[in-house]
UniProtKB/TrEMBL annotation:
Residues 11-32 are annotated as: Disordered. The gene is Ppp4r1_1. SUPFAM superfamilies: ARM repeat. The keyword Repeat applies. Keywords: Repeat. GO terms for molecular function: protein phosphatase regulator activity. One of its GO terms (cellular component) is cytoplasm. Gene3D superfamilies: Leucine-rich Repeat Variant (1.25.10.10). The keyword Repeat applies. This is PP4R1 phosphatase.
Length: 268
């Protein structure tokens, strides 16, 4: 609260955010704050310069990425303009370890920045991480629920179409990726309507129940049972009836014993 009251100074920022052609003086002012010594912040920002990182220490960008949420929390969301360019530079760093570090903390940064800044500045970075290497994607997947719950309902629904993509990995033997997806889907049931669950999450759950790895299947059985519970409590009863019928047809009457066993485990 005290930070909010101290920082109506130097510039009226409405123009700064829309004008991309800053003069050097304006660029410098856009990174001015009075929470910590300015020289300290300038030193931190300078360490993310790619040329410096390559000549001084190849790990320095990763350390900067690790510290960034803490710096953002210290400065407060009203000073995010000081860090925005640095964050985008790190998010596009050539080293996947740097991007991975940011992917694991983007949900924490979203809490610090609030919904408006998250929608404008973090969602594009988040979308980029979703299409990255598996080493980076796992960072956003592990905290998918934590990030999506901070978005508005309409923006959150857009990600329903992309959840299916998590079933595809660079290495098909990466079963922990699919296990993590099942864990996150259990949490995501609370964020979506009965129709969305039936239309989008149900097909993924059935696919995971037939996974080759038993650890993935066990988590998926819990996912399906939670899905039944969620749809049963919904105002529209047709979804749960359709789901139960599909479970009977797909697993209970399966010609393979493993499919019939799956039905028993889900009932259990």
């Amino acid at each position: 609260q005290s930070m909010d009251s101290t920082l109506h100074y130097i510039h009226n920022d409405s123009d700064l955010s829309t004008n991309s052609s800053f003069s050097p003086e304006e660029e410098r002012k856009s990174k001015v704050q009075d929470v910590v010594p300015q020289a300290l912040l300038d030193q931190y920002l300078s360490m993310t310069d790619p040329s410096r990182a390559q000549t001084v220490d190849t790990e320095i960008a990763k350390h900067c990425a690790y510290s960034l949420p803490g710096v953002a929390l210290t400065l407060g969301r009203q000073n995010w303009h000081c860090l925005k360019d640095t964050y985008e530079t790190l998010a596009s760093d050539m080293q996947w370890k740097v991007r991975r570090t940011l992917a694991f903390s983007i949900h924490e940064l979203a809490v610090i920045l609030g919904d408006q800044l998250t929608a404008g500045d973090l969602v594009p970075v988040f979308n980029g991480f979703l299409k990255d290497l598996d080493e980076v994607r796992i960072g956003v997947l592990k905290h998918l629920h934590d990030f999506l719950k901070l978005l508005h309902v309409d923006k959150r629904r857009e990600y329903l179409y992309q959840l299916q993509e998590f079933l595809v990995t660079d290495n098909s033997r990466n079963w922990r990726f699919r296990a993590e997806l099942a864990e996150q889907l259990i949490l995501l049931l609370d964020l979506y309507s009965a129709r969305d669950i039936y239309d989008y999450l149900r097909p993924i759950a059935f696919s995971l129940c037939a996974d080759k790895v038993s650890s993935v299947r066990w988590i998926s059985y819990k996912l399906v049972s939670e899905m039944v519970k969620k749809l049963y409590m919904a105002s529209t009863s047709t979804f749960v009836v359709d789901l139960m019928n599909e479970l009977v047809e797909t697993f209970c009457r399966c010609h393979k014993w493993s499919g019939r066993q799956t039905f028993v485990f889900i009932c259990q």
